[in-house]
Amino acid sequence: KRYYDSIAAAYGLGILDQDEFMEYVVYDAFITNLRICPVHLTDSGHYYYVEHRSFLPHVPGVILRHGTDKQGKSLGVAHLPLTGSNTFGVGDFETSPLSVRWEKMENTGFWTHMKYKFVHELNNGEMKAFNWIRTRNNLMDDQGDLVLVEEGKDELVLAEYLGKGLLMWKKRGRLRIREM
Fold it and tell me: Which residues contact 29 (CB under 8 A, 6 or more apart)?
């Protein structure tokens, strides 16, 4: 079963080796918030909650939490301004804000939002560049399909988000992350 469309396939993007990925379903949780649940519901340790608060001043616009609600431990945050660079932090923003590693993510498309690049420091201290690439804009959807690749290694998809498009009542889409 193929999970990518012809546009992505033309660029060699999309996941073909399904066995090496954790697969999640992304659900609407409350107005702008999301719940990310493993496809295999017996997997009790991999539930996530995305709290979207971009409309509030002086706070992170997005908080990623472990668990199924706002009470979960903070795993990362993002500031997503209407103009300029997006910044995101990896770590527990609420209990250990000084240990959060901050990165910038910038739109590398001149007129489009087709590609965003960020450089991230891995646990071993090595710096690597990654790209989120939009592979398709879904009809009547606020988020198109995306793949995450390491820069210069576009043939190896690290993560993929596939939106539901027009029929996204409760399920927003699928997220697959390569297990490494």
Answer: 35, 49, 50, 69
Which residues, at least 6 apart from 55, have a Cβ–Cβ distance to it below 8 Å? none
66, β-bridge pairs: 48
Look at residue 168 in the predicted model and tell me its pLDDT.
59
In this structure, the number of other CB atoms found within 10 A of the CB of residue 142 comes to 8
Q: What is the DSSP letter of 11?
A: T
Q: In the structure, what pLDDT confidence band is assigned to residue 6 with cuts at 50, 70 and 90?
A: very low
Q: Is the pLDDT of residue 162 over 90?
A: no
Residue 148 Cα distances to 11, 82, 88, 92, angstroms: 13, 22, 16, 23
Residue 165, pLDDT score? 65
The pLDDT, as a whole number, for residue 71 is: 93
With residue 9 as reference, give the H or E element that holds it. Answer: helix 6-10
How many other CB atoms are found less than 10 A from the CB of residue 27? 17
- Which phi and psi angles does 20 have, rounded to 5°? -100, 20
Q: d(Cα 15, Cα 158) in Å, to the nearest integer?
A: 9
